[in-house]
Write the C-alpha cells for this entry.
Amino acid sequence: MTKYKQVSSGEIFLGKLSFGCDLLEGLTNVCIERNVKLGRVEAIGAVQSARVGFYNQQNRTYQFISLDYPLEITHLAGNVSLKGGNSFVHAHVTLSDEKGKAYGGHLASGTKVFACEFVLEAFNGPRFERGFDNETGLPLWLFQE
C-alpha cells in the first residue's frame, strides 16, 4: 500500500560546497548546520572522482564502483530525513565524462568535489525516520499508522 504524509515548504538554502570536500558529507554537514531534518536536495557541478552504488536486490547488498577521473554532475537528486535520530541525506547522482558517457547510481562517500552548487529545501511536517524494511532489506521511511 502506498503511504505518504503532507509536508509544507520551509526555508530554502542555495550554496556552494568547498573544493575537495566529500560530496555526500558536505551536503550532510549543511543539513546538520542548518538543522534540516526533512527536505530535498539538488545539485550540479563537477567532481574530481566519484563513488556510486547499485543495490543488488537478490542478495540485498550494495555494489560500488569508483570512477577515478573528472566528471560532470549532470543531476543530483535526493532527500533528507532522519536515520538514528540524525540528519541523513539519501541521494542519487548522474555523472558524465568528456565523451558524454553517463554513469549513475546511489551517491556514496568518496566522491570528491571539484565544484558543486546546491539547492536545499527544508520541509515542515511530521518526522520521517529511516528504519529497516523487511521487504527490501533497505533503510526506508517508517510510517506509523
Remarks:
- The chain has a mean pLDDT of 97.
- Strands lie at 8-16, 39-56, 61-67, 71-83, 86-96, 102-107, 112-124, 129-132, 139-142.
